[in-house]
Amino acid sequence: MLSVEDLVRAEAAGQRLKYVYFWGHEPRRDGRIGASCLSQWWPAEFTVDGLTFPTAEHYMMHRKALLFGDEDTAARILRARHPNEAKTLGREVRGYDNEVWDANRFDVVVAGNLAKFGQHALLCRYLLGTSDRVLVEASPLDRIWGIGLTADDDRAASPSTWLGANLLGFVLMAVREQLVGESLIGGREKRDITIVEYDPAWPARFRSERARIRKALRDNALRIDHVGSTAVPGLAAKPVVDIQVSVADVEREDAYLPQLEAAGYHLRVRQPDHRMVRTEQLDVHVHICPAGGRWERDHLLFGDWLRATPADRAAYEKLKRELATRKWFDMNQYAEAKGDLIDEILGRAKEWADRTGWTVAHPR
């Protein structure tokens, strides 16, 4: 669905639509990724054709200037220190033709956001986690890219009463679907979520798979760790053993992917700074990440904290059991539903790490 009219027809046909509203680019107070990352003004530097753009707004206005042959303004936009400055310069493009821009603007903004979300793992994960939800720019000031209403306006609850075209929302939904195709090999999966009691056999399964991975990768695997819920004694979990393999450069797939595939694993996820392969039985997931990176640190720290903190371990299990009773559009939606609690727990874990001197090299 890529228009308000599509949504109105779906709603009239009885389809229950769920929404994610966003407006503004300020980060959450706790520093976690939220809906504000969907904004064109969100600071997330990315590179296209050798040029670096501070925000998607810079990219949009730069491409707008180039569309009309105004290279001088395009260069000034690249130097703009704030997205509002880039937007203002975009209004000064020489030779501008509204009809030409209207015909090209959607594709331009799609391209910019594909680069933005495609080059930032955490942003990509957030966007994919919105699954089938309708993304809505609830800007009361914009009736082209937004809906012309705030999220708390009663009229925002139905596309039939929106005042704007919500083009940015539809752009992001198009980007989401393209990223699903690029990052989730085989597309979306809808699987039943089953949580089982902790199985003492899980560590042995990890050791077996570790030996298999070490044989395949040799020194290319800088470290191999048991991560996720099955690595936490006493914690109920999905019966899937998660393994983290740290490598020097995730983007150099030739150093590890053919070897893992030859060992019987199949590629499922390809995202910035993260790949995931799994067994044919889907009971082992192997995550490849950069050594020394945030992915490596956060997953190791999260596990160490849960093993040391019964209260957070119990809270995490309680949430997983509750989520397992619901129906999910896909596995990304289930994972995103755990995100707030994971981030909250990880925040406490990071404070603990700072106090105690915990590091990846020297865990406590």
TrEMBL record:
Chain ranges of the NADAR domain: 21-179
Pfam families: GrpB, NADAR
Reactions accelerated catalytically: 2,5-diamino-6-hydroxy-4-(5-phosphoribosylamino)-pyrimidine + H2O = 2,5,6-triamino-4-hydroxypyrimidine + D-ribose 5-phosphate; 5-amino-6-(5-phospho-D-ribosylamino)uracil + H2O = 5,6-diaminouracil + D-ribose 5-phosphate
NCBIfam families xrefs: ribofla_fusion (TIGR02464)
Protein known as: RibA/ribD-fused uncharacterized protein
Native source species: Kutzneria kofuensis
Phylogenetic placement of the source organism: Bacteria, Bacillati, Actinomycetota, Actinomycetes, Pseudonocardiales
